[in-house]
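Q: What would this chain look like folded?
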Amino acid sequence: MVKIIGAGLAGVEAAYYLANQQINVKLYEMRPKKMTPAHQTGDFAELVCSNSLRSNDIHNAVGLLKHEMTHFNSLIMQAAKHAEVPAGSSLAVDRKLFSSFIEEHIKNHPYIEFMNEEVTDIDPHELTIICAGPLASDDLTKSIEKLLNQEELHFFDAIAPIIDAKSINMDIAYLKSRYDKGEAAYINCPMTEEEYNAFYDAVIQSKKVNVKDFENNVFEGCMPVEVMAERGRETLLFGPLKPVGLEQEGKKRPYAVVQLRQDDAAKSMYNIVGFQTHMTWDEQKKVIRMIPGLEKADILRYGVMHRNTYLESPKILNAGYQVIAYPNIFFAGQISGVEGYVESAASGLNAAIQVSNYIKNNTIKPLPKETMLGAMASYISTPNKSFVPMNANLGLFPPLEFKHKKKSRKEHYVERSLQALSQYKEEM
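A: My prediction, written as structure tokens:
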């Protein structure tokens, strides 16, 4: 029997997969008896913030991820198809129909026992998948802290946008560390006074997301870039856009400099230093593309600032979402270090695949890194000094091992992914 904590997207996906493998599951959910600050109902897999499950295009990372999930009979994808509403090339659903479809399939499955109660203790000897989401209850959080190292559990998300390195115009941007200290590890985007003023005005005038009450007064040491800008036109020049020590030899010192810091070992992703923000994603795209050198920036992950409980997973989990120190314990959903509805569901599915292998073969079988399911699992389990939760994106894939045209890169990724997935299923 497998214990699953949480009936969000990750939990129901994990429960359904295991039950279809004729493995008995006990699925625990504390709502509606005990609510979180963000949820409105006790519905299974409640979509809190948006009804959009994003792109359906298989050449888009999340579109490919959804395609891979259907190969494993994903309950979330079945529910989305059942409850789909018109949304162009995106997948959007009627949220009530979506949740009721899932609840019906879970509660009526002969291998699933539903328990409407809070779990406060974790038994490391009991096979468990923890899918508690970003707002785990206080008692469960304390139990996780007790099981793991307290310093490896984070409680808030204040993350700057992440850019695909290939989309940075290095004819304008340049490598340099401030005052040339150490290796030239930063990509620098210089601004003239005119460019800075236009950028500053756009930041000030940008639309911001509404902050929930429980997220107020959280980020004293991590101020949103737009809040800093509101303190005065020159404030950013003494903060994240400070140009001092970033001159190029033989050139006049820029009026302002936006710095990007390497975010992965392969140098394929760079985050914009100091750009944690409450701006909407559309506004972020507009503002970021005003930065010289980032006019065609491919944004792999937008900046976010919200309450979020997540593990420092590379120190704790392997590529099967399994706790290295406690092999009977698995994590999935946003607490594991993935970000987004589809990604949470996908992590639950992947964790369930691994639990099934663990039960049958006493070992896990990680999905190939060439699949989006496997690339996400690889990201959350690979050593990373600046680990933050991450959406599915093509930058997580290992590079292609042959020469190709830039325009065909996505097609090659998809072809390679589907081949790797097919081979994996055959081996299973």
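Residues 2-159+306-427 form a domain with the FAD/NAD(P)-binding domain fold (CATH 3.50.50.60).
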